Amino acid sequence: MKILLLGGKGMLGSDLVEACQRRAWEAIPLDLPEIDITQEAGLAEALPACDAVINCAAFTRVDDAEKERELCWRINADGAGQVGRACATRGFPLIHLSTDYVFNGRKGTPYFESDPVEPLNYYGLSKLEGETQGRAAGGRAVVVRTQSLFGLRGRSFIRAILNQLQQGKTSLRVVADQVSSPTYTPHLADALLRLVEVHPGSGIVNVAARGQCSWWAFAQTIVARVKPGIEIQKLSTAELNFPALRPAFSVLDTARYTALAGVPMPPWEAGLEAYLAADPVAQSLRPAG
Q1: What is the helix (H) or strand (E) element at residue 131, kind and residue range?
Q2: Lower Cβ count inside 10 Å, N or C end of the chain?
Q3: CA proximity to 101, closest of 80, 67, 77, 126
């Protein structure tokens, strides 16, 4: 099996390369400057022959998206559509990554793929348009909505917490009124390859860790595993005053993924334990014995 990974040198793309290697599949990771999904001319011809394409390329800086709207839209919206049309032209099955931020977070229970969408910020709006354009391209395109990613090769909430602990902070302040399902990118990478094997042809599939927690509860669990005793104060979203609004409760229901793949996603706690076991900063902070 030969898998083309667009945005293949980022956090998720790097974990997808390793997941392919574990299966003895060939991974073709492409990223800037080798390929630019915002340039439609010649894009279809530039795609190497493959059995499936996974599009991880995205503008992911949620707050920056509010002021860098043109670039965000070119990548997340029009770029996704251009990838969809290129794959349709070449006959390649496509899996396109999207986000829980297409929802407004007011439902109060986990979101199904069929629930109404209403993004609260420009990032979510651009990703929703990318879903629409990609699925309208006429090929075999599946949208995978995921959330709250963390991995060893990129910026993440865990890395931010560990950095503060490494700096000697004795008190942290973390938002407590946003609830999601923090998802470990190696677990997501494995799930995406399972979807390649059972590619449903079209539609939307939620893929995220099982369980749910607030960012405050996530931080509490991190600190308890690494440096117990650190105080963590609760913050409200309103106190943070971020440029982009965030959904308060954006947990995704993953029953459809479980039915397709035949196995459920690991819980978020398992992803956290795997991360901490592999992160050198976490290991240096953990008490001896």
Answers
A1: helix 122-135
A2: C
A3: 126
**pTM for this predicted structure:** 0.96
Q: Which of 18, 61, 59, 12 is nearest to 207 (CA)?
A: 12
The pLDDT tens digits of the residues spanning 154-177 come to 889 999 999 999 999 889 999 999
228 exposure class (CB count in 10 Å sphere: 0-12, 13-18, 19+): exposed
Nearest of 196, 229, 191, 225 to residue 210 by alpha carbon: 191
Fill in the DSSP letter of residue 155: -
Nearest to 259 by CA among 202, 194, 201, 211: 194
User: How many C-beta atoms surround the C-beta of residue 170 within 10 A?
Assistant: 10
> What does each C-alpha distance from 9 to 6, 16, 35, 36, 56 come to in angstroms?
8, 9, 12, 13, 9
Amino acid occupying residue 185: T
- Under-70 pLDDT residues of the chain: 288-289
Residue matched to tokens 């459920």: 264
Provide the token pair at 265. 């996603």
Q: Which amino acids are annotated catalytic? A: 123
The per-residue pLDDT for 288 is 64
At 222, is the secondary structure helix, strand, or coil? helix
Cα–Cα nearest to 215, from 166, 249, 186: 249
- Two tokens, residue 62: 């949620």
Residue 61's closest CA among 49, 69, 53, 51?
69
What whole-number distance in Å separates Cα of residue 214 and Cα of residue 174?
A: 9
